Predict the 3D structure of the following.
Amino acid sequence: MAFTPLKTDPRTVPVIQVDSHLPAVAHQRLQADALRSRFAAPPAWQAEFSIEKKFMDREPMPAAVLLPIVLRQEPTVLLTLRTQHLSTHSGQIAFPGGKVDKADAGPVAAALREAQEEIGLEAQFVEVLGQLPIYVTGSAFHITPVVALISPGFALHPNPYEVAEIFEVPLAYLMNPAHHRHHQVDWQGVQRQWLSMPYQDQLTERFIWGATAGMLRNFYRFLRA
């Protein structure tokens, strides 16, 4: 799920800072047992990105996304590319997720349901670790990121209406601020800023930005605290 709309290609928006001065998360902290321990006894920390500048006036909409860490030899984060024809956040890189339905028991249940509906990820491969703070988008979505470990062996079946591609990015790459870029632009009379974390996937650039990048940055802060 990614919600930051823009009428121009976000790749063309100027970069005002790259966070090469910040330390990467140590390799050992990215392993399964270390991640389990971190969520079992979380440190005192504060999210860096929590509320986007508002651009839509409507009632808050609860939502949940799954931040899926695949337990490869080197852990990866599973992401999706949304299809171009969707009415909102089309063509953006996102976590599996969506609105919390009334029938959902809560954000965890919603994230698991959405992951199954969007990409065919079965719950038997998912070990939920915990949640990150709510991220509020400018379109009034109140997103709860649900962090989970994904055991290999799953078979994915993307919903062709919503998902154009499914791919993985090394967790170590995303948890290294040398790859975190700050953008700034004046849009609709408001100065807006966001992060991007472009990743070169063979011949394809995966331009991770907006809410997805913001939640990943919060995860970085959680692991570095």
